[in-house]
Specification:
Layout: H1 2-25, H2 35-50, E1 60-62, H3 71-80, H4 85-111, H5 129-132, H6 136-155, H7 161-175, H8 179-196, H9 202-232, H10 247-255, H11 267-294, H12 298-306, H13 309-326, H14 337-354, H15 361-394, H16 397-402, E2 408-413, H17 428-433, E3 436-437, H18 441-445, E4 450-452, E5 458-462, E6 465-468, E7 479-482, E8 485-489, H19 496-505, E9 509-514, E10 518-523
Parallel strand pairs: 2-3, 2-8, 5-7
Antiparallel strand pairs: 1-4, 5-6, 8-10, 9-10
Length: 524
């Protein structure tokens, strides 16, 4: 029976893989929180590259610093030459949803092929909260990291010039995706070399460490230099800008499986997933302790364990969960730091757990059944949200049609807007119409591909709104311009904020499109 299950298992995995990506193409728009901002800035990058003089030329410039967070923008720029922006975005997300579980499965095949069924538990890690936050660069960084792990485990004993060149390219891709993932990838390679080649006789260990560690370090060195420069060039923020999550909230984040959820409806299933992950982890720990206890030569058994990738995954699991309780959730430059540690920590926990003795046919069938049941229930809730947000995005289309190309647009999201994942949705105007969106948080952050062109400082106003576009210190304002359009998104019924905005722009702007949630004003 075990052989029969092994034969059909790849086909089951392939079917779930198709189901995993299906929600992306089941709607016109796959809306994520930062997706609108990314697509807007991708259009700016593409325009700056091909049109030296455009609406963006005097406002933005491509960031001269070699910052991370480039990969998602780069992929979307390339796709944008062939597809509409929202199709490019869906292709990017589809690539991630397909390749993440495929390469996770490849890693499991290399460390514990007998437990390949554990790879089914990874599907909830694909439709995770940070994907819906639109953190494409981080997600691509995780994908490239999986590719690096798979590559390293396959080739680390036979590295040559060509393979070290490939390793350099992988470090390159990871660094320009996300800094945090790059640091973890360097730790993975370093820890694996240290213990796989260091767990032998002293002289031989030093020789092997130098032989393998030196070229691996050289592969990572240019990007370690960029990492150092990145931190040095960013002074410490004021204590008020550095935010820590309470420890009890972090524990709750882990226990309730917040990395898997975008709504409360998914939490009961997410909690069970976490329980299964912890159960497998304890099973693996117990298994390894029993083997160590029963071994005739306990020292040799311990050395054998230290040389295995499972030990690296255990070290990284402990390290990342520990750092989740120590480092801030927002360092003043970027937020959602803690959940990234928890996400990768759970992945390493699962990888460690996969490396144990055969779990048995019955257990494997149960594992596939339970994990698929939990995954499908989570996805049913997610599909409702995906569909609703796509419909909500469609209600913007009449207003978008009115806005003219190269227009300047100031947009406001009312405080009571109905879904927090739609905070940057309006910025898709900039992707669709090459409009100048006056609210551009990426340009102000300093760690995205686009930044302000401070040689041309323009002050934009909308009635009584005085909106200084760029954060260029005390540099002189060259000119002041009136925005062409003001777009207000959110339910205006009995909304005091909406009435205040209208009061401040009424002398200069006339409403040209009106609905309950979308209200567009044009300069008179």
């Amino acid at each position: 029976m075990f052989n029969k299950i092994n034969k059909i298992e790849p086909y089951i995995f392939f079917v779930i893989l198709l189901i995993n990506v299906a929600p992306v193409f089941g709607v016109k728009y796959f809306v994520t929180l930062d997706g609108g901002a990314h697509c807007n800035n991708v259009n700016i990058i593409r325009t700056l590259l091909i049109e030296p003089s455009s609406i963006y030329s005097n406002i933005y410039m491509i960031n001269p610093e070699f910052v991370p967070n480039w990969s998602g923008h780069f992929v979307l720029v390339v796709l944008g030459f062939f597809f509409k922006y929202y199709i490019s975005e869906k292709i990017l997300i589809a690539i991630v949803l397909i390749l993440l579980p495929v390469f996770f499965r490849e890693i499991v095949k290399k460390i514990a092929p007998q437990n390949i069924f554990i790879s089914f538990l990874f599907f909830p890690f694909t439709h995770y909260i940070l994907l819906y936050l639109g953190f494409y660069n981080f997600t691509l960084g995780v994908l490239f990291f999986f590719i690096l792990i798979s590559f390293w485990l396959k080739n680390h004993e036979k590295m040559n010039g060509y393979l070290y060149a490939v390793l350099t390219c992988l470090f390159f891709a990871i660094y320009f995706s996300h800094l945090f993932v790059f640091i973890v990838s360097v730790l993975f390679v370093g820890i694996h070399i240290l213990f796989s080649d260091g767990a032998c006789a002293e002289k031989e260990a030093i020789k092997r460490l130098l032989k393998k560690g030196t070229p691996a370090l050289l592969c990572a060195l240019p990007f370690l230099f960029l990492t150092t420069n990145y931190f040095i060039s960013r002074p410490a923020k004021a204590p008020a800008e550095v935010l820590y999550l309470p420890k009890e909230k972090i524990v709750k984040m882990i226990k309730e499986g917040e990395v898997f959820t975008t709504s409360y409806n998914e939490m009961p299933y997410a909690k069970i997933i976490v329980f299964i992950l912890l159960f497998l982890f304890l099973l693996a720990i117990t298994n390894k302790l029993i083997r160590l206890w029963n071994a005739d030569k306990k020292g040799d058994e311990l050395k054998l364990f230290l040389k295995k990738p499972a030990f690296v995954f255990l070290v990284l699991t402990i390290l990342l969960f520990s750092l989740a309780f120590v480092l801030p959730n927002d360092d003043g430059y970027g937020g959602y730091i803690t959940i990234r540690f928890v996400y990768l920590g759970l992945i390493f926990l699962l990888l460690f757990s996969s490396d144990q003795t055969i779990l048995g046919t019955g257990f494997n069938i149960l594992l596939i059944s339970v994990s698929s049941f939990l995954y499908f229930n989570i996805m049913e809730s997610k599909k409702e949200g995906i569909s609703w947000r796509s419909q909500e995005r469609k209600v913007l289309e009449p207003a978008f049609d009115i806005i003219t190309p190269n227009a300047t647009v100031f947009h406001v999201n009312l405080a009571n807007k109905t879904d927090w994942l739609m905070g940057h949705m309006v910025e898709n105007i900039g992707a669709e119409k090459s409009a100048l969106i006056l609210n551009n948080y990426e340009a102000s952050k300093g760690y995205f591909p686009i930044t302000w062109n401070c040689s041309q400082r323009t002050n934009y106003v909308a009635g009584e709104y005085n909106f200084v576009m760029n954060d260029c210190g005390n540099s002189l304002i060259n000119e002041t311009r009136e925005a062409d359009f003001v777009l207000i998104y959110g339910d205006k019924t009995d909304n005091v904020e909406y009435l205040e905005i209208v009061e401040r722009i009424k002398n200069k702007y006339t409403i040209v499109y009106e609905s309950i949630k979308i209200n567009l004003f044009k300069k008179s």
